[in-house]
Amino acid sequence: MKSSVQRGQSMVEYLIVLMLFVLALTAGPRSPLERLFEAFGDRYERFTHAMSMP
């Protein structure tokens, strides 16, 4: 019985750490996640421009 309780507690701890990580990625006006998406958009724009050249 003790191992199942311990396993449940570990799951809660992992979820809390995961939620804090997601919060850190999405918080703020210039969040790291927003900057990552902007970088992907910029690279895709450059790629499509280069592909459209003859």
What does this structure look like?
- By secondary structure, the chain is mostly helical.
- It is built from 2 helices and no strands.
Which descriptors would you attach to this protein?
2 helices, mainly alpha, single chain, 54 residues, elongated
The major β-sheet equals: none
pLDDT under 50 segments (min length 5)? none
Query: Could you estimate the helical fraction of the residues in percent?
Result: over 70%
Straight-line distance between termini: 69 Å
| Tally of DSSP helical segments | 2
Residues in β-strands, percent: under 5%
Secondary-structure map:
Layout: H1 2-26, H2 32-52
Short description:
85% of the residues lie in helices and 0% in strands. With 54 residues, it is mainly α.
